[in-house]
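Final report, Chapter 2: Outcomes

The project's central promise was a pipeline that accepts a single protein chain and returns its three-dimensional structure in a standardized token representation, suitable for archiving and comparison. That pipeline is now operational. To close this chapter, we reproduce one record exactly as it appears in the project archive, with the input sequence first and the structure output second.
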Amino acid sequence: MNPDASTIAAGAPIEVDLSPVAEGQDIKVFWRGKPIYISHRTKKQIDEARAVNVASLPDPQTDEARVKSGHEQWLVVIGICTHLGCIPIAHEGNYDGFFCPCHGSQYDSSGRIRQGPAPANLPVPPYTFVSDTKIQIG
């Protein structure tokens, strides 16, 4: 039984196969009409995100709190800038994360706001790993 398009658009969970996503690559999918960035982070990106002094962040949150234990290489965030709702660009800016060209907000490889007018980190949608290579969002 497959839900129709209107049910999916209203927020039905979606499954995403991660196996074709290479290390260092991002993909964008849509859930509830919102862009979802899924990043296959490199060891360097993870190490840099974890080395940040959390107290120095505008919206303090550890990298560990933003990813699933045992799957630290995968970052899943809603790709909507928390400033005015623009769509940031992946792998841009000073922090190897996301850059919003509209007003200059910059997020790191954990989706945390580091610079610019955005008041909060990119939100993490509800998701679970259904296998090592597949997630369910919603």
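Archive annotation: The CA atoms of residues 39 and 122 lie 13 Å apart.
This record, like all others produced under the grant, will remain available to the consortium after the project formally closes.
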